[in-house]
């Protein structure tokens, strides 16, 4: 697939735009750029909404807009991953539970917690669009690196299996991780100084923890794991950015 085609495949996987286009291994290299663009667009929604409504309403509109921008795919990943990874189950049973369209108690609880924390953090922050660009870049970088670094957990099928390449280059994966992390730190750091850097660091650590849990309990990643790692990481990043003191340079 051409670079343009890989970029379109990344957009189609991460957003409802172009949905139906098959993912490709090369699309992973575009995840950080697509994530930064999504975050910047959401930051624009955040800033505009704050000019009209009080912070709680503006924050709610950003949360809803994010669900629309992602087609609720990542929230669905949080629900399925929580149902499969958190209960005491046999490994084979975990994958079956994650494939079940019904949501269990773990999934519902995880989704509710994510939405509440995201809304609360955004309500406490002054709108800074570049902060969201940095955090969303970091979360999509984490998704892409996990897809390249971990084996695929399902024996066959699954949308994310299309990301698997016949041969994986450790150098390319390291370059992807380093480039995405540097871009994320630069964006978030410019936005909020040390607070943005801490937020990206926390996001990355939590995304790695989710991927490590999936490796331990499933033997690798699935599409749901990628979505959960990114969304839960973003949520922690937002909470850290809203912490007091806020480590702002301004």
Structural commentary:
By secondary structure, the protein is mainly α. Helix 2 runs antiparallel to helix 3, helix 2 runs antiparallel to helix 7 and helix 9 packs antiparallel against helix 10. The C terminus is likely disordered.
| Low-confidence regions | 246-250
Task: Let me know the number of strands.
Answer: 0
Number of helices: 10
Rg measurement, Å:
17 Å
Please outline the major beta sheet: none
* C-alpha geometry: globular
Q: Distance N terminus to C terminus?
A: 45 Å
Helicity, as a percent range: over 70%
Instruction: Give the overall pLDDT as a whole number.
Output: 89
What is the strand and helix layout of this fold?
Elements: H1 3-14, H2 31-50, H3 55-69, H4 73-85, H5 91-99, H6 105-124, H7 129-149, H8 170-192, H9 194-218, H10 223-241
Helix pairs in contact: 2-3, 2-7, 3-6, 4-5, 4-6, 4-10, 6-10, 7-8, 7-9, 7-10, 8-9, 9-10
Descriptors:
single chain, 250 residues, mainly alpha, 10 helices, disordered C terminus
Give a quick rundown of the structure.
With 250 residues, the chain is mostly helical. 71% of the residues lie in helices and 0% in strands.
């Amino acid at each position: 697939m051409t670079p343009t085609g890989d970029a379109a495949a990344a957009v189609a996987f991460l957003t409802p735009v172009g949905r139906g286009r098959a993912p490709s291994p090369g699309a992973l290299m575009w995840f950080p750029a697509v994530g930064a663009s999504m975050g910047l667009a959401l930051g624009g929604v955040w800033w505009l909404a704050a000019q009209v409504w009080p912070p709680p309403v503006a924050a709610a509109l950003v949360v809803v807009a994010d669900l629309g921008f992602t087609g609720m795919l990542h929230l669905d990943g949080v629900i399925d991953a929580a149902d499969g990874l958190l209960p005491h189950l046999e490994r084979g049973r975990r994958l079956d539970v994650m494939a079940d369209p019904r949501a269990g108690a773990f999934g519902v609880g995880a989704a509710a917690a994510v939405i509440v924390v995201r809304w609360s953090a955004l309500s406490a922050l002054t709108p800074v669009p570049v902060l969201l660009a940095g955090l969303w870049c970091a979360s999509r970088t984490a998704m892409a690196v996990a897809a390249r670094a971990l084996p695929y957990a399902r024996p066959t099928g699954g949308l994310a299996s299309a990301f698997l390449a016949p041969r994986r280059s450790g150098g390319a994966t390291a370059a992807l991780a380093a480039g995405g992390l540097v871009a994320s730190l630069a964006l978030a750091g410019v936005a909020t100084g040390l607070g943005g850097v801490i937020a990206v660091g926390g996001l990355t650590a939590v995304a790695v923890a989710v991927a490590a849990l999936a490796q331990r309990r499933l033997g690798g990643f699935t599409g749901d794991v990628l979505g959960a790692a990114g969304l839960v990481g973003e949520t922690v990043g937002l909470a850290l950015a809203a912490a007091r003191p806020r480590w702002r340079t301004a």
